[in-house]
């Protein structure tokens, strides 16, 4: 499978970074995601190990999924997808950008952008500039029905 995501429109520049996606891609501005390490908690319940969503994770997903639902304006990706993420950290502290992507993809799933983040075949994660309180720009397009 070859994904030629720029065929349907001209590529755009997003926050000073060139985009690989066409201009008609769905664009979302989401709150700064917590680290994957802060979202999930490993605990023992009756002696059995379990992985649970933390309270911070629940709060983030509730807020971010609401943003996705409102901003996607009824649009939904039914087939295979290409996704571009630009992370605007709240400070200049070093971060692992890949550590934030899963929370954003899960929020898009919970907000109904697609059925499952397993539909994503192309994922580009970029570091943007520092923005007060942080933000994540998620652009997505269907590349194959």
TrEMBL record:
Enzyme class, UniProt record, top EC level: hydrolase
EC number: 3.1.21.10
The protein's required cofactors: Mg(2+)
Record-level Gene Ontology MF annotations: crossover junction DNA endonuclease activity; magnesium ion binding
Gene Ontology biological process: DNA recombination; DNA repair
Catalytic activity entry: Endonucleolytic cleavage at a junction such as a reciprocal single-stranded crossover between two homologous DNA duplexes (Holliday junction)
Keywords: DNA damage, DNA recombination, DNA repair, Endonuclease, Hydrolase, Magnesium, Metal-binding, Nuclease
Family named by the database record: Belongs to the RusA family.
Self-association and partners: Homodimer.
Function: Endonuclease that resolves Holliday junction intermediates made during homologous genetic recombination and DNA repair. Exhibits sequence and structure-selective cleavage of four-way DNA junctions, where it introduces symmetrical nicks in two strands of the same polarity at the 5' side of CC dinucleotides. Corrects the defects in genetic recombination and DNA repair associated with inactivation of RuvAB or RuvC.
Protein name per Swiss-Prot or TrEMBL: Crossover junction endodeoxyribonuclease RusA
Natural source organism: Quisquiliibacterium transsilvanicum
């Amino acid at each position: 499978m070859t994904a030629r995501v720029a065929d349907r429109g001209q590529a755009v520049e997003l926050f000073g970074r060139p985009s690989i996606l066409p201009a008609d891609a769905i664009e979302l501005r989401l709150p700064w995601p917590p680290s994957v390490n802060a979202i999930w908690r490993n605990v023992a319940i009756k002696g059995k190990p379990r992985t649970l969503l933390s309270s911070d994770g629940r709060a983030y997903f509730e807020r971010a999924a609401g943003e996705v639902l409102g901003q996607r304006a009824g649009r939904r990706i039914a087939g295979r997808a290409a996704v571009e993420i630009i992370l605007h950290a709240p400070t200049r502290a070093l971060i692992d950008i890949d550590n934030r992507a899963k929370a954003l993809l899960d929020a898009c799933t919970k907000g109904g952008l697609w059925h499952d983040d397993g539909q994503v075949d192309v994922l580009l994660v970029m570091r943007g500039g520092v923005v007060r309180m942080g933000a994540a720009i998620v652009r997505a397009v269907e590349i194959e029905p």
